[in-house]
Amino acid sequence: MVEVDAHLAAVEASAVAAGSPVREFSWHPRRGNYPGWLWTATTGTLVGYESLLERVCGRLPRF
């Protein structure tokens, strides 16, 4: 992983779109939320969620 500091105006949108997520999901027993992964046809990838609310919102159609 390479870390780069730059002003937002100097960053190309394609470089941001090609980047990978910075944050990782943690899994702990008895945590109280239900993290997991959701497959999306829009991106063709797995998208992480940290709660059931995020999972439900991630499954809503985007028109």
Describe the structure.
The protein is an alpha+beta fold and 63 residues long. It has a domain at 32-63. It has helices spanning 13-17, 52-59; strands spanning 36-40, 45-49. A hairpin with a 4-residue loop joins strand 1 and strand 2 (45-49). It is extended. The protein starts with 12 loop residues before the first helix and ends with a helix. The mean pLDDT is 79.
Short description:
The chain has 63 residues and is α+β, with helices and mostly antiparallel strands. The protein has two helices and two strands.
Count of helical regions: 2
Overall shape: it is extended
The portion of residues assigned to helices is 10-25%
What's the arrangement of strands in the largest beta sheet?
1-2
Mean pLDDT: 79
Main sheet makeup: 2 strands, antiparallel
* First-residue to last-residue Cα separation: 34 Å
**SSE order, one letter for each helix or strand:** HEEH
Low-pLDDT residue spans: none
| Rg from Cα | 15 Å
Structural class: alpha+beta
